[in-house]
Amino acid sequence: MNSPYFGEAHHRFRASLREFLEKEIFPHAREWEESGEIPELAYQKFASQGLILPALPNAYRDGRPRPFNVPDHEWDIFFGIIVGEELARCPYNGVVWGLNGGNLIGCPPILNFGTQEQRMEYLPRVFRGEIRFCLAVTEPGAGSDVANIATTAEVDPTDPSYYLVTGEKKWITNGIWSDFATTAVRTGPPGSGAAGISVLIIPLKNTPGVRRSRMRNSGVSASGSTYISFNNVRVPRANLIGEENKGFAVIMSNFNPERVSIATSAIQMARTCYDEAFKHAVFRRKTFGAYLSENQIIRSKLAGMLRRIESCKAWLYQLAFEVKSRGEKVAYQDPYIGAMSALLKVEAGKTLELCVREAQQIFGGQGVSKDGVGSIVEQMSRDFRVFIIGGGSEEILDDLGIRVLVDKARKERLNGKAKVKL
Ligand SMILES: Cc1cc2nc3c(=O)[nH]c(=O)nc-3n(C[C@H](O)[C@H](O)[C@H](O)COP(=O)(O)OP(=O)(O)OC[C@H]3O[C@@H](n4cnc5c(N)ncnc54)[C@H](O)[C@@H]3O)c2cc1C
């Protein structure tokens, strides 16, 4: 279909990326998901294509090109969306997150709020595939309520150039094999809420006081979901990202692009469910002497899926265009863009949820079987839930989105610029 958002360069990029993924990644994805790990060689191949932090500015890429030699001046948010869409064609989302789930959320705080020294020390090595990052915010006692985290970083009384970090982090994607965790810690007094949070780069490998254990979730096995304990871990104060006690804004700034990225994947996964169900209903499965698609109630399911998918996609591209037009750094600071990113993520998650359900119904018993024609949909039925919980859950984001619009309307009324007429 013709598109105002994607040009020739985007189409070429998509074709090259698809060819690479279909040759090097997708054929092995099931095996990696089942073993819960991606071989180092595969990770290095992925890195060698520039696919780790594909949007990283030239200054931190060591002179290496962007993926598939896209010139810097041509790169825009739509190339990033293509990366998200093409990766999400993988039926095993654990593999997608295993390849890049940690770096993509653990590195932006360094890029956007770190010192030049921190950027130069870490980002080129991440890009080359030499080190890996994860983002450690969630704790056993604080998930949605980020301002309530309990992991503390206190200045070491024996050497004030260090912090001593103590606490626990839960469900940390890639944590088990990451070299560093971009970690939310409390540097303010107990009860200081959002005003007492800082973000620290904590080395994980061979660090005294760090313990890591794998977590078993219902899907995404190859994503390396990890429980991390810190017990009096000495961390240089030079590893602070941004200012002390100003970390809440750093964490929040990560969320808008992350939500757009989660929505991108969810929409593509919903499309896979639709495609699988369509093939099954139209060309494969006959009941009572006719293909499933001969029944109006089955066609109605397919129509319902496609309507939701195409609506979400149009919304995603329009939002991305708005972000591109205003510049990513500026746009993502705008509460309105934040609200739209949150609501889009909710809608994409609900669309995925619906499509998984309807596809499983169309597959019948095959939709819950780990082998055979319905196995992709079965896998997605275990992977999809985290899209509705992680990166801000449905309940929190719906409320966030609408609160921004309510506040905006109230302010406009107070300023005499009311758009809402009563
Ligand atoms: C596979 C996986 C990977 C993850 N990866 C990472 C990672 O890499 N790094 C990281 O830091 N975290 C990660 N997380 C954690 C994730 O971000 C949290 O699970 C999420 O923020 C929700 O927190 P919670 O699970 O503690 O739920 P809770 O905050 O306990 O919420 C439970 C339920 O109550 C609802 N709820 C909570 N408060 C309210 C309210 N005020 N009003 C209405 N409803 C409410 C929520 O929407 C949710 O449905 C991951 C989680 C999973 C499952």
UniProtKB/TrEMBL annotation:
**Xref: Gene3D superfamilies:** Acyl-CoA dehydrogenase/oxidase, N-terminal domain (1.10.540.10), Butyryl-CoA Dehydrogenase, subunit A, domain 2 (2.40.110.10), Butyryl-CoA Dehydrogenase, subunit A, domain 3 (1.20.140.10)
- Residue ranges crossing the lipid bilayer per the database entry: none
Query: Which InterPro entries has this protein been placed in?
Result: Acyl-CoA_dehydrogenase, Acyl-CoA_Oxase/DH_mid-dom, Acyl-CoA_Oxase/DH_mid-dom_sf, AcylCo_DH-like_C, AcylCo_DH/oxidase_C, AcylCoA_DH/ox_N, AcylCoA_DH/ox_N_sf, AcylCoA_DH/oxidase_NM_dom_sf
Q: Which UniProt keywords apply?
A: FAD, Flavoprotein, Oxidoreductase
Of the GO CC terms on this record, one is: cytoplasm
GO MF annotation terms = acyl-CoA dehydrogenase activity; flavin adenine dinucleotide binding
Q: Where is the Acyl-CoA dehydrogenase/oxidase N-terminal domain?
A: 8-130
Indicate the segments forming the Acyl-CoA oxidase/dehydrogenase middle domain, all copies.
Answer: 134-233
Q: Which cofactor does it need?
A: FAD
Q: Name one Pfam family in it.
A: Acyl-CoA_dh_M
Q: Does this entry carry the keyword Oxidoreductase?
A: yes
Superkingdom per UniProt: Eukaryota
Q: Where is the Acyl-CoA dehydrogenase/oxidase C-terminal domain?
A: 245-400
Keyword Iron on entry? no
Q: Name one GO biological process term.
A: fatty acid beta-oxidation using acyl-CoA dehydrogenase
PANTHER family, sorted = ACYL-COA DEHYDROGENASE (AFU_ORTHOLOGUE AFUA_2G16630)-RELATED, MEDIUM-CHAIN SPECIFIC ACYL-COA DEHYDROGENASE, MITOCHONDRIAL-RELATED
Family, according to the entry, reads as follows: Belongs to the acyl-CoA dehydrogenase family.
Q: What's the name of the protein? A: Acyl-CoA dehydrogenase
Q: Which organism is it from?
A: Schizopora paradoxa
